[in-house]
């Protein structure tokens, strides 16, 4: 499990971008999308700081919306920069994973 | 810990770091409501989460801050020997209004000595100190009177600076509140105060009367973590108000936010 | 003037909170008084004034030592050195006079008719005048209270043991109590005793005040390496 946490730490922000590529969302729902995608439970303590970083870097845009029921929620969506980063970083990641797979193959 | 307690603690921790808590607390509250998890499981301890939020928000690039005008404190060529041991060897120090200098160095590298020389309490063997304004000094310990109450200290030091009684008390008390010491007015003789609280008094007395130059020698001895953070918040606050501040410190966490670092360890570049 | 008064006020507050010192101040001279009361009553007068002199100078020693920690900060805050020691002296003199008054009344009542009341008053006033500068001078010269206490103890012991007729005895700070005391208790004694006593007290006072002023000014002096822009 520890190794997995370390792997996730390296790509969490890209995964968040990926989750938002499917449409805008708010914190808890993003966590659910990631969990449904097989990444396991993402703690709020990890997710929200990552969202703040992405927002600061301009890769996501956020706004508060008052819901019909309940209090206001902060919604996030990909910015143009975010979409571009997701595409290029995603490509780099694919290459990286390919290389790692090749090295780890037992001959 | 209940969610409400956790959220209240988070709010306090964020406020202490001068972050508006509304956004992060609102989001965390919504998350906990949606998921129904235990807050410590979902987010961890409030202080740790607050740190993570700050890290996420903090601007990575330091503000470039040029010196403005004549330095309020300029020490040149300060040399001090104790017998055969040379404690300070030609040290220079310049501090301008609105600038914070951190003075670091190993134990015995002469940090306290340098500060006392700049405060005028000790004579160097050679060198000169030029002051452009009033000075306030806070030693590592001492500087208070066992049998007087904090209020009486405020009046005593205030009178020296020409501040009236009521005004001096008011200023001292408000500074105490900023350092998380709300019941300073009701405190008894200072010999009954805990070490950390007494140091708060020491710090307040150094700052009373609004001196232009502040010389602080590790004034946070005995402070709990919250007060330590409050202290640094006050330092940034005083910097914004145009004070020239020198802080002797061992602890390196705040160094990326000060304007200049002076390292007194022998052999290091100044 | 105002700053000196603030120093004096705070020094008074400090002393009033030191219960042990206050009790000693109040009761030790009483013990001295009654130690000689059985024999020659005139010894009581001398001993009670020595008791007051000793406890008041010890109180001054403690006050002066305790102030060392805060005095540099007060200098930085803008006090002149003379305001610091004059304020402290004013507080100690006030305490001394408050202390001496009940003892004066005690002697008045107890030794009614046997002594010259005005001379007694003079002895007590002069003792109160000399003791604080003595204590502060010792504090200024000796940084630690223990050494200071030993010095004061030695002085008081010598004061009691040395034959007052010897010239050496005049070097002791409270010699004048014996001199004026002679006039107070001996009906045949001339007023020249008073003159000599006053002169001695005056000189002692000046010497100790000078020591306090010089030592404190030296310790808290504005250093030459600092200049104001």
Automatic annotation (TrEMBL), chain A:
Phylogenetic lineage: Bacteria, Bacillati, Actinomycetota, Actinomycetes, Micromonosporales
Pfam families: PadR (PF03551)
Naturally occurring in which organism (per UniProt): Actinoplanes digitatis
Transcription regulator PadR N-terminal domain segment(s): 16-87
Protein name: PadR family transcriptional regulator PadR
Top-rank lineage group of the source organism: Bacteria
SUPFAM superfamilies for this protein: Winged helix' DNA-binding domain (SSF46785)
């Amino acid at each position: 499990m520890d190794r997995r946490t370390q792997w996730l730490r390296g790509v969490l922000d890209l995964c968040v971008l990926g989750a938002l590529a499917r449409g805008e969302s708010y914190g808890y729902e993003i966590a659910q999308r990631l969990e449904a995608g097989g990444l396991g439970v993402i703690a709020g303590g990890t997710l929200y700081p990552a969202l703040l970083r992405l927002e600061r870097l301009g890769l996501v845009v956020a706004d508060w919306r008052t819901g019909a029921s309940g209090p206001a929620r902060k919604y996030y969506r990909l910015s143009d920069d975010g979409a571009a980063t997701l595409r290029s970083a995603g490509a780099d990641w694919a290459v990286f994973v390919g290389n790692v797979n090749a090295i780890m193959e037992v001959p | 810990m209940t969610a409400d307690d956790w959220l209240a603690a988070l709010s306090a921790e964020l406020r202490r770091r001068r972050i508006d808590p509304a956004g992060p607390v609102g989001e965390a509250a919504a998350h906990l409501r949606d998921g129904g998890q235990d807050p410590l499981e979902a987010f961890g301890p409030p202080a740790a989460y607050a740190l993570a939020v700050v890290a996420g928000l903090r601007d990575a690039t330091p503000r470039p801050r040029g010196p403005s005008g004549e330095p309020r404190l300029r020490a040149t060529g300060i040399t001090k020997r104790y017998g055969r041991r040379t404690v300070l060897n030609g040290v220079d120090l310049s501090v301008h209004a609105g600038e914070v200098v951190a003075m670091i160095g190993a134990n015995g590298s002469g940090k306290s000595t340098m500060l006392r020389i700049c405060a005028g309490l000790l004579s160097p063997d050679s060198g000169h100190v030029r002051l452009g304004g009033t000075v306030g000094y806070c030693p590592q310990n001492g500087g208070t009177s066992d049998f007087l109450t904090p209020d009486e200290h405020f009046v005593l030091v205030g009178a020296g600076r020409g501040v009236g009684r009521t005004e001096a008390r008011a200023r001292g008390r408000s500074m105490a509140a900023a350092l998380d010491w709300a019941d300073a007015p009701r405190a008894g003789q200072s010999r009954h105060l805990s070490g950390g609280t007494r140091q708060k008094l020491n710090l307040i007395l150094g700052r009373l009367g609004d001196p232009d130059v502040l010389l602080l020698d590790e004034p946070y001895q005995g402070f709990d973590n919250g007060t330590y953070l409050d202290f640094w918040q006050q330092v940034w606050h005083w910097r914004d108000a145009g004070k020239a501040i020198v802080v002797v410190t061992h602890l390196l966490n705040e160094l990326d936010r000060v304007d200049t670092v002076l390292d007194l360890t022998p052999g290091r570049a100044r | 003037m105002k700053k000196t008064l603030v120093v004096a006020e705070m020094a008074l507050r400090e002393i009033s909170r030191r219960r042990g010192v206050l009790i000693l101040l109040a009761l030790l001279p009483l013990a001295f008084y009654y130690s000689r009361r059985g024999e020659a009553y005139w010894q009581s007068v001398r001993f009670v004034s020595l008791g007051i002199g000793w406890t008041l100078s010890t109180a001054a020693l403690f006050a002066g030592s305790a102030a060392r920690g805060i005095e540099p900060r007060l200098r930085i805050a803008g006090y002149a050195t003379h305001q610091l020691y004059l304020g402290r002296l004013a507080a100690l003199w006030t305490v001394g006079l408050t202390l001496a008054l009940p003892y004066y009344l005690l002697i008045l009542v107890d030794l009614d008719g046997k002594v010259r009341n005005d001379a007694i008053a003079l002895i007590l006033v002069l003792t109160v005048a000399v003791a604080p500068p003595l204590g502060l001078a010792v504090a200024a010269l000796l940084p630690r209270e223990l050494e200071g206490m030993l010095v004061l103890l030695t002085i008081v012991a010598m004061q009691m043991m040395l034959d007052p007729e010897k010239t050496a005895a005049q070097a002791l700070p409270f010699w004048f109590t014996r001199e004026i005391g002679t006039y107070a208790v001996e009906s045949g004694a001339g007023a020249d005793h008073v003159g000599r006593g006053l002169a001695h007290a005056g000189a002692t006072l000046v010497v100790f005040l000078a020591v306090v002023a010089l030592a404190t000014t030296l310790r808290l002096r504005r250093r030459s390496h600092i200049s104001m822009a």
